[in-house]
Amino acid sequence: MITSARPRHLARVTCAGLACLAALAAAPATAATAAPITVSDDTGRSITLAAPAKRIVSLAPHITELLYAAGAGERIVATVDHSDYPEAAAKLPRVGGYSRIDLEAVAAAKPDLVIAWQSGNAAAHVDKLKTLGLPLFLSQPNRIEDVAASLEKFGQLAGTSAPANAAAAQFRRKLAELDQRYRQRPKVRVFYQVWKQPLLTIGGHQIISDVIRLCGGENVFGHLTTMAPAVSVEAVVAANPEVIVASGMGDERPDWLDDWKRWTRVTAVARNNLFFVPPALIQRHTPRLLLGAERLCEQLESARAKRAP
Q: SS3 of 284, please?
């Protein structure tokens, strides 16, 4: 933003009487006494900024997307690989990947706020960022509702509360609609496959498990506490899910989803309930999560329709 630097005596010429002079005199005092911004991050740590952040480094794709959704995209000065949504994010400078951060590049960006991913960034990198004295917010939204809260907090930190709160309200409205439509539907046992080798799924505390619950489903490995645990093929077969959902890496259905067809006694295979949801719609903690949730809910509804009367 470009502001006028004309001398005060010239500004007074345009003022109408004592009221304008009083306003000019009061302006510096108002700025000087502006209240600091204090927000609790997702680990319960308090973050205090003297003023809204103007130079933000985002250390995860979902954080970058959330900042844009909160109206703070123009304040991001650097991010990590795979931060590709919205399109403007692809043009941002990179400071490595979310699991291999270039700490020197982070410091060189001169941020007044760094937002890191608690379970995605390397713990050693997060610890080092703390010792550097940079204002650090740790993001870890594990529930669908946490997306709306993240939008509001990012808006507070960046001074963009108006668009952030509007986006949060819209998210909550859509979530309430899906909840009303699907939460009480008959349970469907779901195996969610993140990757083939190693065979990775999701634990009960991962946000995708919350999406499954929203749709009236049950994660067959929901009892596991690890975010992305490795499991065996034998364990999946023993769990006998009614639905198998794969994500993969891109927008195309992964070929390895069809590898399950050899296990004909698994209910998901017998009923052809092998589904795909693009990872960008369900594996990022952003407003687009509800697009993935809607698709998953429709797939579980399709599985219910195949049950014997």
A: coil
Domain that holds residue 69: 37-168
How far out from the chain centre does Cα 105 lie? Answer: 23
Task: Output 248-255 pairs: Cβ under 8 A, ≥24 positions apart.
Answer: 248/195, 248/276, 248/279, 249/279, 250/278, 250/279, 251/278, 251/280, 254/196
- Distance, in Å, from the CA atom of 82 to the CA atom of 6, rounded to the nearest integer, reads 44
Q: Which residues have CB under 8 Å from 134's CB, separation 6+?
A: 106, 107, 111, 113, 114
Are residues 208 and 128 part of one domain?
no
| Residue among 136, 124, 131 at smallest CA distance from 59 | 136
The pLDDT tens digits for 19-51 are 333 333 344 444 445 689 999 999 999 999 999
- C-alpha to C-alpha distance for 79 and 76, rounded to whole angstroms: 7
Model confidence pLDDT, tens digit, residues 236-293:
999 999 999 998 888 889 999 999 999 999 999 999 999 999 999 999 999 999 999 9
Across the strands, what pairs with 243?
190
- How confident is the model over 135-168, as pLDDT tens digits? 999 999 999 999 999 999 999 999 999 999 999 9
My answer on whether 219 and 104 are in the same domain is no
* Nearest in space to 61 (alpha carbons), one of 105, 120, 108: 120
Domain-located, residue 16: no
14 compared with 216, residue with greater pLDDT? 216
Number of domains in the chain: 2
Q: CA dist 52 to 37, 135, 143, Å?
A: 7, 12, 27
Round to whole Å and give the CA distance between 68 and 75: 9
Measure CA 12 to chain center.
48
Q: Which residues on neighbouring strands pair with residue 276, listed in sequence order?
A: 246
What pLDDT score was predicted for residue 11?
38
Average pLDDT for 71-94: 97
Which of 157, 172, 136 has the alpha carbon at shortest distance from 70? 157
